[in-house]
Amino acid sequence: MEGALRLGRLAKVRARRGPYVMSVAERLLIGRLKDRDEDAFGEIVRLYGDKVFNLVYRMLGSRAEADDIAQEVFITVFKTIDTFRGEAKFSTWLLRIAANQSKNRLKYLARRATDPEGLEGGGALDVAAAPHGLPLSGQVDGPDVLAEAAELDGLLQRGIAALDEEQRLLVILRDVEEMSYEEIGEVTGLPEGTIKSRLHRARMALKEWLDRHTR
Amino acid sequence: MDHEQAAELFSDFIDGTLAPRDKAALEQHLSACIQCRTSLESLRRAVGSLGKLKHGAPPRFLPDIQQQIYQRSRGRFFSRRWKLFGRIPFEWVSLATIIAMLIYYIAMLHGTPGGVKPAP
What we know:
Chain A is mostly helical and 215 residues long. Chain A is 72% helix and 0% strand.
């Protein structure tokens, strides 16, 4: 039911936007991937691996969980690339899979957390233990700068984790991944007005959380 | 404009997507309201910090995925490549085997058995 609603909303978003035209390079790469070209798959992972991993990591807050789910996203891409029809950018199709799998994992973890027989500690937020992980930038900062950045990273991650899953996704797509409202619409299936109002509430909730925890 | 109405416009103001009339009204309110100015600055800082949250995939990310696909496809994809010749597709190996068997069959059919002299 939810899937059908999302598809209907996506069709509306696409109807408003008009047809998407793939670049030649993108078309060639996807064509090779549909032929199960292993080098093309490697290229896709190299191109989008960091983006997908970051999205999943920020949604789940655990590196171990993010590693599993981000891998699963690319395995799904390899298996289901034939269903990609080029109506949207490949990257938004990929991030939609990543967002859906992250949400499913969050639901599973929430169920397991309430299950008294569930495993202990699984999916726990691990940013506080090693907040900085593998930074994307190659620059080397001094220990004070790194410690400050790590503290801020951990604080922001805990703030994001305090949001509900939909607010979390919108904040990550817009403010962490810096995507346009149109791209966010492709990923979430929501119209621009809804994205803006929900994002505003999410940002305000995050600001209030940070205000409370930094005084 | 009261505090609540002003706060409703903060997000669009930060994104630069506020309509000119609303922007002017908000700026007028901000010039007189320190509470909203502080709140807006706090929101701007939070949103700005989020852009720095970048975390790359682990170094073994690609090999781990390839290994997973290799196992799940029972060796159909991402099997080890030969160092000199690259991976030989399964279809080519099958074709070469069929051709070799055909040649052997034809040779057996038309060849004369060696080492046996005809009877005088």
